[in-house]
Design brief:
- The structure holds 2 protein chains of 2 kinds.
- Chain A is 48% helix and 16% strand.
- By secondary structure, chain A is an alpha+beta fold.
- Chain A folds into 2 domains: 95 residues, Sandwich (Tumour Suppressor Smad4), CATH 2.60.200; 158 residues, no CATH class.
- Chain A has a 6-stranded antiparallel beta sheet with strand order 2-1-11-10-7-8, with no helix packed on it.
- In chain A, strand 7 and strand 8 form a beta hairpin.
- In chain A, helix 2 crosses helix 3, helix 2 packs parallel to helix 5 and helix 4 runs antiparallel to helix 5.
- Chain B starts with a helix and ends with a strand.
- Chain B is elongated.
- In chain B, strands 16-17-20-24-23-22-21 form a 7-stranded antiparallel beta sheet, with helices on both faces. Chain B has a 6-stranded antiparallel β-barrel with strand order 1-2-3-6-5-4.
- Chain B is α+β, with helices and mostly antiparallel strands.
- Chain B has 2 domains: 196 residues, Beta Barrel (Thrombin, subunit H), CATH 2.40.10.120; 192 residues, no CATH class.
- Chain B contains 6 helices and 25 strands.
- Classes of the chains: A alpha+beta, B alpha+beta.
- Chain B: InterPro entries: Peptidase_S1_PA, Peptidase_S1C.
- Chain B: This is Serine protease.
- Chain B: Keywords: Hydrolase, Protease, Signal.
């Protein structure tokens, strides 16, 4: 029979394990112990772990130590262990593993993970960065009214790109912290790709709004699409960074998106009661090349405007 | 000898004018009052103006804006007068004319023999000396001699142009001719010796209501609403019935002279050598607005056209600039949360009768206390050219639904390509 002791961090994350092919294990600060702990709060001879010969269960015994033994935060002098009990001696956290207990089956390999392999290409990262910076420079050029100097605007746009890469960087660092691969290239590619999708959608939105002039409901649709994009992005970032259970990942992705979306929603949709002495209108104008729909006649526009009056009279009563 | 005679004449004319001023003041000071709006909570005055008595029943004329706080929140204020001899008493509101900024108040108790001002039958001649009376900055009653310069041109709300200093606190004081007859009422100043007075006919019209009963408090807002309604109908009808003179602005033909009473100005950026586009502006507005209370003005009109041309910019850059020029249009009149609702807007692309395609935005807000009155804000931007465009814009303050819609329609159909 073997006894396995697992050394845990303060947050009970496994650090190291020791396997002993014997029926008892002495734990303490003394070098004579089977497992020697370098913890000043542990006695030279602190704890004895043994297999009960009759029941075959694991037991711990306190060897009259100064600071005692805590199992799941309760002091004991002698106790039988059940699986997943965390033992605390001095400031050290341990778990004693019963080698007879069966382990859960292996997690199936994720299809999605295989399918995301194409993201892991440095060349793609270079291309996407180039596309992003081109888009930023082009929109800067289009927005400029004075003479356009590339050298003058380039630093600001590169800075913006660097700002975007904070997100993949922080995920890569977090992954490294929990001893996983950083997947930095995947993370960067994912972020740039989502940014580009966002740019394309915002251009499309302009064209649609300019041509169709939809009502206030369209802003809500825009918000929903933005929300889906954002939570998908967070979910994928988590997926690449950590090996989590799907449920846990869903919960984290949803709550993070909620944290970002809730204030946006409050400002955008619930804040309508505030008085504003200026009107809030859409000023988008696009060149004739993007003008696809037919214009109304003056008469029709005036007719449509009638509804403003009833809307206002209703607002007045509220 | 002749020179001496001329000098003597000038001197005597000057002496005479001084004499008149002195006479006027001593003779009429007992019919002049300081009008005070007393805030009930603190028991102290919150604003002051001047007023003058016109009959034995104790009727006093002043400016509407002097008593506007009381009209809007009668439960928080009362009106008092302070006479030259230091006696005071309460005043009751009889009637008012918001459009011409006049109010008629009445002393609640009168004595046997009251001094009064007579109202003149006709306006003085151009250049005649007239005398403005009032109590500037709460310093005591004064007389300011000045010149009558006729009725101000380009104005819908008629004002006498008076060359003489009118200061805050003199509002509501009378302006009299050499005989001591009232020819106008102090109302505003445009700085440096230019003052504006409410002319005689408006004064006569309100003074004729001196027999009226005291106006019930719940009728105040109702009266304002009716007066504003009638006024907007008149001004919009006048605007729509005059022929709109067209002139060219860039490649467009736009109405630049609408009605005699709007004053127009132009501007362009041709001085800016670095600009990659041309902007030419043409704007007309009504110089006066109707004062309703400290936070609310109405009755204003603004019309604006801007021609933008950016041949060197290319269509995408031009349209980006064009969009930005459309941002930030605001109301033409001051109003607060308690007075008006938020704006509601209608956007669309419109093709007018001259085949001009425009993105059109019409925004409206309603007056909370005056049924059927709205502020209108319109913006149109033509969409027919790659690197050129015309922005047309107007605001109307305090108009009825019909006026708003018919004026908007006429304005939209007035723009054409040359």
């Amino acid at each position: 029979m073997a006894i396995v002791l697992e050394l845990l961090s303060r947050k009970n994350i496994p650090l190291k394990h020791y396997k002993f092919e014997q029926d008892y294990v002495c734990v303490g600060r003394d070098f004579n112990n089977d497992l020697r702990l370098d913890d000043p709060y542990v006695c030279p001879s602190h704890m004895l772990v043994a297999i009960d010969p009759e029941s075959g269960l694991l037991m711990v015994n306190d060897c009259q130590s100064t600071n005692g033994i805590k199992i799941n935060n309760k002091f004991v002098t002698q106790a039988t262990l059940s699986p997943n009990d965390v033992i605390k001696i001095g400031r050290t956290h341990l778990r004693i593993i019963d080698t007879k207990a069966p382990l859960p089956r292996a997690m199936p390999l994720s299809e999605l993970e295989e399918n995301l392999n194409w993201l892991n290409k440095a060349f793609l990262a270079v291309c996407l960065s180039f596309l992003c910076i081109s888009y930023l420079l082009l929109s800067e050029y289009i927005d400029s009214v004075k003479e356009f100097k590339l050298i003058a605007v380039l630093p600001a746009q590169l800075g913006q790109l660097a700002l975007f890469s904070l997100w993949p960087l922080s995920f890569a660092i977090l992954a490294k912290v929990v001893k996983k691969e950083s997947h930095i290239v995947n993370q960067i590619n994912l972020t740039l790709l989502i940014t580009l999708v966002f740019y394309v959608l915002s251009l499309l939105q302009k064209i649609v709004v300019f041509n169709v002039n939809p009502g206030a409901w369209f802003a809500f649709i825009e918000f929903v699409i933005f929300g889906i994009l954002l939570s998908g992005f967070i979910w994928l970032s988590l997926f690449i960074a950590f090996h989590q259970a799907t449920k846990r990942r869903n919960i984290i992705a949803l709550s993070l998106s909620f944290l970002i979306l809730a204030p946006l929603f409050t400002f955008g949709f619930l804040n309508t009661g505030e008085f504003d002495s200026s009107p809030n209108y859409d000023a988008t104008l696009l060149a004739p090349a993007y003008n696809f729909t037919k214009a109304f006649e003056t008469e029709k526009f005036i007719d449509n405007s009638q509804r403003l009056f009833s809307k206002l009279d209703k607002m007045k009563k509220d | 000898m002749r020179r001496f005679l001329v000098l003597l004449f000038i001197f005597s004319a000057h002496a005479q004018s001084q004499q008149t001023a002195q006479n006027l003041f001593s003779h009429y000071q007992s019919a002049l009052y300081q009008i005070r709006i007393i805030e009930l909570e603190s028991g102290n005055k919150s604003s002051i103006g001047s007023g003058f008595q016109i009959d034995q029943q104790g009727n006093i004329l002043t400016n509407y804006h002097v008593v506007s706080e009381y009209v809007f929140t009668p439960e928080k204020y009362r009106i008092e007068y302070l006479s030259n001899d230091g006696s005071n008493g309460t005043l009751a509101l009889i009637n008012f004319d918001v459009v011409n900024d006049l109010a008629l108040v009445r002393k609640t108790s009168t004595t046997e023999n009251e001094d009064t001002f007579n109202i003149a039958n006709e306006l003085p001649g151009q250049g005649e000396t007239i005398y403005s009376l009032g109590n500037p900055h709460d310093l005591g009653m004064i007389v300011v001699p000045g010149t009558f310069n006729g009725i101000k041109k380009n104005s819908f709300y008629q004002r006498i142009h008076f060359t003489g200093a009118i200061n805050p606190g003199m509002s509501g004081g009378p302006v009299v001719n050499a005989l001591g007859e009232v020819v106008g009422v102090n109302v505003a100043t445009a700085g440096n010796q230019i003052g504006f007075l409410i002319p005689l006919n408006k004064v006569q019209r309100l003074a004729a209501k001196h027999q009226d009963e005291i106006l019930a408090i719940d009728q105040f807002k109702n009266n304002i609403q009716q007066q504003l309604m009638a006024n907007q109908a008149e001004i919009i009808t006048q605007l729509q019935n005059t022929t709109w003179q067209k002139s060219s602005l860039g490649e467009a033909s736009v109405p630049t002279k609408i009605g005699e009473f709007l004053s127009c100005w132009g501007d362009s950026n041709t001085n800016d050598n670095e600009a990659l586009f041309l902007s030419v502006e043409n704007r007309c507005r009504l110089d006066e607005q109707i004062f309703l209370n400290g936070g609310l003005r109405t009755g204003g009109i603004e019309l604006e056209f801007e021609w933008l041309s950016g041949k060197e910019l290319g269509q995408h850059r031009f349209y980006s600039l064009y969009s930005k020029s459309l941002v930030g249009a605001g109301a033409g009149n001051m109003a607060t949360k308690t007075d008006v609702t938020n704006y509601q807007c209608e956007h669309n692309k419109v093709i007018n009768i001259h085949q001009v395609n425009s993105k059109t935005i019409l925004c409206l807000r309603a007056y909370k206390e005056f049924d059927g009155l709205y502020d209108v804000l319109f913006i149109g931007a033509t969409l027919d050219h790659d690197q050129q465009g015309l922005i047309s814009h107007f605001t109307l303050a305090g108009v009825a639904k019909d006026s708003a819609l018919s004026f908007t329609k006429q304005f939209m159909d007035a723009v054409a390509w040359q």
